[in-house]
Amino acid sequence: MSEAVIQIRDVSKRFGSHQVLEGISFDIPRGAVTNIMGPSGTGKSVLLKNIIGLLKPEEGSIWIDGQDLVQLSDRELYKVRMKMGVLFQDGALFGSMNLFDNIAFPMREHTKRTEKDIHDTVMEKADLVGLVAHLRKFPGEISGGMKKRAGLARALVLEPEIVLFDEPDSGLDPVRVAYLDDLILKTKAETNATFVVITHNIESTTRVADYMAILFRSRLAAFGSRPELFASDDPVVRQFLHGETHGPIGMDELADAEEEIERTLQQAQAEQAEREYALAGVGAAGAAGAAGMGPDVQSAAADEIPDPWAARDTQQVPVVVPPAASAPNPPVPPTPPQPPAPPW
Which residues fall within 8 angstroms of residue 74, CB to CB, at 6 or more apart? Predict the structure, then answer.
């Protein structure tokens, strides 16, 4: 294995009481494609966010080119992030910008390049991903696969040393996944960058991955080269890579893990809102209600707030029923005149 560009050491991450990552350690080789895989709810995207620096682990360290991201200041972290490009699941394009401006955005935001330099770079990356003829289109006018390619072009404009993909094949049909895989290999060959891919797609992994890391139940189940893992006898690795129903990976626990992560994220957001409201002079009850807590918490919060309508609602208001109006008697029609008796 070549020199490591990213070193992950004993990384643990929690959301409230839920342990999402625990003791994760492995190296990502420079200039290779490393796929991070595993069942749903095992913390793959959370690990990616820790590598980017969007989240910080409670324990452990993440080293990139000799710098521990966990210990860096915001300014130092910003410099390290300039070495990275990220392709999000849906491309994360700005809907109000055409593709040219979307791809140019990082250069206009983070550099002092001239518009001519920006134009030349956009055309170069658009040509790499096959979008030169579509640069005037808006995201709402193109397919999902084209959005992915535009997102990749944008991720490459700052010439990153590391490119991170968060489930790039999500929502694509098998043919477009194959085209995307070819594009990833072509881009890696031309840029010599390090690619880190979060994916569930086994067939795609067989085409593009040099190395693989498999997560299970918050831990690292295995790491190694692609041939090593496909030949592995580990029960988790074998079941996942071959799509078997018999083994340690169960269906219910995956759904439970995803639900638990969602609950803990909501709880963390509610606690953060409570702290912010407390600093602003608003009571904990008001913060809990504003954070979208459950109905029991909201009703408890409401108990502490006086209701100006409560006194009126509890008063006994006499009900006056008006007497029924007597209807006038209908007029009696006059008796019609009797015809005269016949003479016979």
Answer: none
